[in-house]
Amino acid sequence: MKPDARRFANRFAALGHEMRLEIVRLLLAAHPGGMVAGEIQQELNIPASTLSHHLDALHQENLIQQHREGRFLRYLADDQSLREILDFLYAECCTRNEVVQISVPARGRTGKVAGKR
What's the rounded Cα separation, in Å, for the pair 92 and 4? Predict the structure, then answer.
């Protein structure tokens, strides 16, 4: 397996847990300010130890960033890392198949599904 593929496989594995995906969704909705751990815990209604485990897994794969603010930890979605995942999928999947082309506005790409207008 290529090193890039392994890195992305690990990121997808981290995102593959329902709670972790929900955490990333919350942090994207709160972008760019992010949320402190207590806000995330309150929103998801899960124990602090469980949240900590999931945050660590996401942070380890660089899917979220963590910043200390006094006694609190603020978490933010790592938009660059998440964009790399989209770019990886696009490069590995969509550029090899002329049937499907994805529109990615942030990169200025436009696309369409073949046969549709």
Answer: 11
Taking the C-alpha atoms of residue 9 and residue 78, their distance in angstroms, rounded to an integer, is 17
Residue-wise pLDDT tens digits, 61-116 = 999 999 999 999 999 999 899 898 888 887 766 666 555 555 555 544 444 334 33
Please give the single-letter amino acid code of residue 54.
Answer: H
Give the Cα separation of 96 and 114 in Å (integer): 14
| Residue 6 to residue 104: CA distance in whole angstroms | 24
Rounded to 5 degrees, what are φ and ψ at 29?
A: -65, -30
What is residue 60's predicted lDDT score, i.e. its pLDDT?
95
Strand partners, 100: 113
Provide the 8-state DSSP code for 95.
S
CATH of domain 3-80: 1.10.10.10
Per-domain residue ranges of the chain: 3-80
pLDDT at site 42: 96
Closest among 66, 76, 86, 73 to 11, alpha carbons compared: 86
